[in-house]
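RETRY 2/3 - previous attempt timed out on the joint model. Re-submitting the same 1176-residue input unchanged.
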Amino acid sequence: MYRTETCGDLRLSHVGNQTTLSGWVHRTRKMGGMTFVDIRDRYGVTQLVFNNETNAELCDKANKLGREFVIQVTGLVAERSNKNTNIPTGEVEILVEKLQILNEAETPPFTIEDNTDGGDDIRMKYRYLDLRRSSVRSNLILRHQMAFETRRYLDQLGFLEVETPVLIGSTPEGARDFVVPSRMNAGEFYALPQSPQLFKQLLMVSGFDRYFQIAKCFRDEDLRADRQPEFTQIDCEMSFVEQEDVLQIFEGMVKHLFKFVKNIDFAEYFPRMTWHDAMKYYGSDKPDIRFDMKFVELKEAVLGHDFVVFDSADYVAGICATGCASYTRKQIDELTDFVKRPQIGANGLVYIRCEMDGTYKSSVDKFYSNDDLKAIAEMFNAQAGDLILMLAGAKTKTQKALGELRLEVGARLGLRSKDVFKPLWVIDFPLFEWDEDTQRYYAMHHPFTSPKPEDLAYLDTDPGKVRANAYDMVVNGVELGGGSIRIHDSKLQNRMFELLGFTPEKAEAQFGFLMSAFRYGAPPHGGLAFGLDRFVSLFAGLDSIRDCIAFPKNNSGRDVMIDAPSVIDQSQLNELNLVIDIKISESK
Amino acid sequence: MYRTETCGDLRLSHVGNQTTLSGWVHRTRKMGGMTFVDIRDRYGVTQLVFNNETNAELCDKANKLGREFVIQVTGLVAERSNKNTNIPTGEVEILVEKLQILNEAETPPFTIEDNTDGGDDIRMKYRYLDLRRSSVRSNLILRHQMAFETRRYLDQLGFLEVETPVLIGSTPEGARDFVVPSRMNAGEFYALPQSPQLFKQLLMVSGFDRYFQIAKCFRDEDLRADRQPEFTQIDCEMSFVEQEDVLQIFEGMVKHLFKFVKNIDFAEYFPRMTWHDAMKYYGSDKPDIRFDMKFVELKEAVLGHDFVVFDSADYVAGICATGCASYTRKQIDELTDFVKRPQIGANGLVYIRCEMDGTYKSSVDKFYSNDDLKAIAEMFNAQAGDLILMLAGAKTKTQKALGELRLEVGARLGLRSKDVFKPLWVIDFPLFEWDEDTQRYYAMHHPFTSPKPEDLAYLDTDPGKVRANAYDMVVNGVELGGGSIRIHDSKLQNRMFELLGFTPEKAEAQFGFLMSAFRYGAPPHGGLAFGLDRFVSLFAGLDSIRDCIAFPKNNSGRDVMIDAPSVIDQSQLNELNLVIDIKISESK
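RETRY 2/3 succeeded.
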């Protein structure tokens, strides 16, 4: 071992001891005849002292140390006169007697500090240096702790971690698979799993009873912000359970992580909200309930005042921004621009200011009298000083737009603190989503999700009305995970495939092994999966999942550090029976 | 929840309680007016009783249950008159009051018993049914426990589990990579990692200090017995350590697993053997030291007796099989056939029987007198009744053949019990292996392994003589893991690449990011990796790693259950800019 202690170990109680430390030169400074060097490792930073008077040669050597040199020092632990109370080792320093340079270092392309001078691109290229920064490393330490505590919690409850295969078969449904050409089976391909869904259901058929896996999953999608081609799921499944059992076990897991990692206690049950209410009151299936600001639907109240925008709209609703009557014209214009952005797509924004003098000022004064506006304001319980913001249009689209506006206003009002955590179960999702373009139903979760028994009758008459035994865990507006009780009856499963437009042949080709497994005694089962990357970034207060992944890819799916993907040898292509044929894309 | 207890919970202390169980119908039998059903889940088997006299309708329903039906029953726990002492629940039975069929089952294609009537192929096709057998499931429970305890041990020692990427770049060196075409980067490919080697070394450069990962690795090799295209490594790396530190930490880990999982204590240090001695005395770099039977080299002793086979051989050596003088002609012929098999490749086998009357009988009596044979026998400390077996030929090949013979004889003598565990560190591996075909040196471990400092001088003069800071953990002749202290000095690393025949350009192209990382302050570091699959199969006493993998592939790399790999849609190929072009292989 190159050290007796780490750079984070030494305290006042060690004063007088001999110590040997190894680490990186973090900072050096000369003051008179003294040279001070901060030595850094994963565990901390310790101050080294070299005295030119007592050992000029050694001090000279210290003066030549460059940033990020790897050194080993031996010396006496001494009490510092000017203590640094910001770090646990700040009360001591090492009077160095021996200095060995273990490795030299070129000057790094950016400073190894929490607030570095390096931009995103250079930090990604030199990710191994970026990872030296304690702010980045702490995210990965948190990730380790969360994964470990997840395993500990689930192990204690009898869950078995089972590794499912990474080289599986491709299923054309859903998102695009990454595929892997098989050399031994010419012309055939493996696919990388988008989730272990089918395998975990097979494990239930196998009687594993309680399964989990922290599993890498893969999705070949065009990368939007905060998507990675490979991501990690906490994947879980249980047998002989109903929805309530799953919710309780995994609410327990989330509480355990909050307690263990963040020392936050949730004494009460997490609130539950139906998908219907989430859409109605928050315009989102993952409402941020750190603040209230619920939607109020206004169609009835605003109808018949010759304001054609409202009169012609399917849906009119608004939110009340407490204390925002003082917003300037410019601020309201900003909000209007916000909702008119193409991603949000509203046509305009209507406001009512509840003035301090009890009057109302609105962008639609022309159509609504003061009493009309007052009546609307009362529907929000708006007080003098509040600002009401209204949108109108097609229902679903307008709900979503108003949901985005709500989040924006909440952020502006400082109601979305990263130190406050508001978990929520969203339940009773619809089983199907109707797609206008293809004129067919799609499974909202996936085709194995079971309908609620009380809604089974609608399967034939009104599929859109069928609710699923499906649930999402949402914290602060982030969907951390979700799952469902699965169909374990093969007749019902076949009926589902039919409703989803699968021919029996297509269903057999894609899910034949699961359907065949179900014929040999499938137990009732259900489960869920959490996104570990999102879970960690939520706990770390990060804006992007990228910052809690050791070696992430950029938006083109490239690892710029190792420069992957890359071309491969012709001989590799030959062995795989592949020829590259790049078509000139029409869109270029 | 569909149950109040599991099928493994109930004991005498529960007698009189009401219980609800759910599980699979394991066995049914009628005796007089009674029907007995064994209900099974992951946790055990419990006997259910249906009485035709007290409830004919219910009993009738029970009589119609098929094997592997999924049922839920409610009833009273009662004491059994004829207790089954083989199972923990064998003292009680359930007097069933309510029976619900949760799912029916077709008759499975083989019996769900430890000794099943199903052959390998059908069990793999219906792996989800095979996994219901407790003998198979217990392997996966063991795997879960070993992985979890590994994590617990390493977490306590400050190791951080860091996920390294699965989509990386291809390196033409070493075994063949699986590759993944990139849609977003046309004509380019990712590769799946054969190990996280480069990334874990980068994490050391990043100051992570102690890293581990239980990681999926991939190798596109022609599958010999007991190879899988995807396998799992316990991958570890530490900074500021020397070989001794690594050995101690991971010897501790192996001891922890032995203690925790098998309740075996190893009080002493594991023995250590140099690679040189392992080859000299056991003809293997992974000696099985459950039994002794060391090689005795005989070249000097046998020379000059006009026996041309021995006289012309580079190397003559033998082993002494205790008590085997009584082997029949047929048994000795079997051993001769064994060593002459092409995989072993010896030309013949010479024996000396140490007869009970003090005389010696040999297949080379013609060349050696009784006194000559006695002198040889004494070199083995052979006793009356022992059998000496000798091979001659080129040194390395003959050592390996004699090593195989030693294992075969050990097995015949019952010296290789699966209940005895003999761990061993093999150390001081050569740094390089000379390859006759290509007339160049190859790295025996990998190009990042550091030479022993005392052997550095030979790097230029006699590379074959340089020993590495490399080590393997061997248990019962199985290589469980191995690793090395790495080179952290970029000059030495460059010298290594040179010796291994890399041009600077080629080294830069393949390992540029690592070499560049090393310029920014790499700490001394080293580590190792264990094969989790082998580790589990060793502990489970299995002959194949396949039996401790939930969903293994066959020898053609196929998953016969899900029928992967398979053809993919033309549209997928188009998106990937690929054309399949299967060449007719000349060898067909």
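Chain A has four domains: 12-103, 120-240+529-588, 265-274+419-522, 291-416. Closing ticket.
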